[in-house]
């Protein structure tokens, strides 16, 4: 049975002290929160807070992920963080190909593929983002765009490698805008993605792949979205910065 996953993408938010407070609050609330046994909670704070978050994770019920990784192995790449470094901190997950990386840092599908390869070499599970911008949705190109992102970013993998991949479908027009995809829109494209995976890797791999929805997901709409057959959880931005909202979403299955 594929996992339900709720991952919090903190993006570039919180000072060290605020981060400490937020994690503390999440840990405290988790002690009295009934999470479904099949639900995995992942915190993806900024790089400088990964170690602190991992320390808390040792005594709590969540896993830790990074928000990005270098496509290079090591060397003269000032400011970059390698998969080996994340591995040496025992991280479990890493977001790759977020639309903000694609938009502001020119991250191409080929770069996403290279980052995925680096992560898999170090046994870190990639959470690979895909999704169309508004103009593409308005001209009904969302299926073509998402297909190209997935084919070029992931379909070089073997079936065994692919079984470590988590996919996050995030329509760019819904990220941080307050506009959420309707549950039907989410289901339609999640089913399309699962079908693509089934065609390439077979039904079993497709059935075991967690496909998350992201884009203005909050406590008030999570239940309806997560109730869709092919939606296995969420990648949460804004709403993960408040412990109470994040955990309300995590208990929305
Ligand atoms: P949002 O961001 O929940 O603030 O829309 C989601 C994301 O970008 O991962």
Briefly say what this structure is.
The protein has 253 residues and is of the alpha/beta class. The chain has one domain (4-250): Aldolase class I (TIM Barrel), CATH 3.20.20.
What brief labels describe this structure?
253 residues, alpha/beta, TIM Barrel, eight-stranded parallel barrel, 12 helices, binds 2-phosphoglycolic acid
Radius of gyration: 17 Å
CATH architecture: Alpha-Beta Barrel
Q: What is the helix fraction of residues, given as a range? A: 40-55%
If you consult CATH, what is the topology? TIM Barrel
Q: What is the terminal separation in angstroms? A: 15 Å
Name the CATH superfamily classification. Aldolase class I
Describe the protein's architecture and organization.
By secondary structure, the protein is α/β, with parallel strands linked by helices. The chain has one domain: TIM Barrel. It contains twelve helices and eight strands. The protein has helices at 16-30, 50-57, 83-88, 99-105, 109-121, 134-138, 142-154, 159-162, 183-201, 203-208, 219-226, 243-250, and strands at residues 4-9, 39-44, 62-66, 93-96, 125-130, 166-169, 211-214, 233-236. An eight-stranded parallel barrel has the order 1-2-3-4-5-6-7-8, surrounded by six helices. It is globular. The structure holds 2-phosphoglycolic acid (PGA). Residues 9, 170, 175-176, 214-217, 235-239 line the site of 2-phosphoglycolic acid.
SSE arrangement:
Layout: E1 4-9, H1 16-30, E2 39-44, H2 50-57, E3 62-66, H3 83-88, E4 93-96, H4 99-105, H5 109-121, E5 125-130, H6 134-138, H7 142-154, H8 159-162, E6 166-169, H9 183-201, H10 203-208, E7 211-214, H11 219-226, E8 233-236, H12 243-250
Parallel strand pairs: 1-2, 1-8, 2-3, 3-4, 4-5, 5-6, 6-7, 7-8
Helix pairs in contact: 1-2, 1-12, 5-7, 7-9, 11-12
Bound molecules: 2-phosphoglycolic acid.
The site of 2-phosphoglycolic acid (PGA) has 13 residues, from strand 8.
């Amino acid at each position: 049975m594929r996992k339900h996953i709720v991952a919090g993408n903190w993006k570039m938010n919180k000072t060290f002290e605020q981060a400490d407070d937020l994690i503390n609050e999440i840990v405290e609330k988790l002690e009295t929160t009934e999470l479904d046994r099949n639900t995995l909670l992942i915190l993806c704070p900024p790089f400088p807070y990964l170690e602190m978050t991992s320390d808390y994770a040792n005594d709590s019920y969540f896993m830790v992920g990074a928000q990005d990784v270098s496509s290079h192995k090591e060397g003269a790449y000032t400011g970059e963080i390698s998969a080996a470094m994340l591995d040496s901190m025992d991280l479990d997950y890493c977001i790759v190909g977020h639309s903000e990386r694609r938009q502001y840092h020119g991250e191409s599908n080929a770069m996403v593929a290279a980052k995925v390869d680096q992560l898999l070499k170090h046994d870190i599970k990639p959470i690979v983002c895909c999704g169309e911008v508004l103009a593409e949705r308005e001209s009904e190109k969302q299926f073509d765009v998402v297909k190209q992102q997935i084919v070029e970013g992931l379909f070089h993998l073997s079936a065994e490698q692919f079984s470590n991949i988590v996919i996050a479908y995030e329509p760019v027009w819904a990220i941080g805008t307050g506009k959420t995809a309707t549950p039907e829109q989410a289901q339609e494209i999640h089913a399309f993605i699962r079908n693509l995976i089934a065609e390439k890797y077979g039904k079993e791999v497709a059935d075991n792949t967690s496909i998350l929805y992201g884009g203005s997901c909050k406590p008030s709409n999570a239940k309806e979205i997560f109730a869709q057959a092919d939606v296995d959880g969420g990648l949460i931005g804004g709403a993960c910065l408040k412990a109470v909202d994040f955990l309300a979403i995590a208990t929305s299955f």
